[in-house]
Write a structure and sequence with these properties.
The longest helix has 47 residues, at 41-87. The chain has one helix spanning 41-87, and strands at 27-29, 36-38. The protein is mainly alpha-helical and 88 residues long.
Length: 88
Amino acid sequence: MLKKKKPLLTRKNAKVTNASVGAHKDLVRDPNSHAIINTNKKAYQEAMDAHRLAKSKDERIQKLEDNVSDMDNKLSKIHDMLIALTNN
């Protein structure tokens, strides 16, 4: 059976006696795991957008590298064929 995902911890649903962590109003401590969680949705969204952009760039670079490698292999084959034709 699949486990239900816990809802995103926000300042409103955080069951923490001292919600703020130090002087940071956007940070709260999860009472179960004791992890520090950033409840700033805008900062979270910006971080996720940056992650998606970096992943997209990495995938694009990998695709370009694969294309260059493929073209290099084909050029090598053409070169070998030209050498074989000139030797006959």
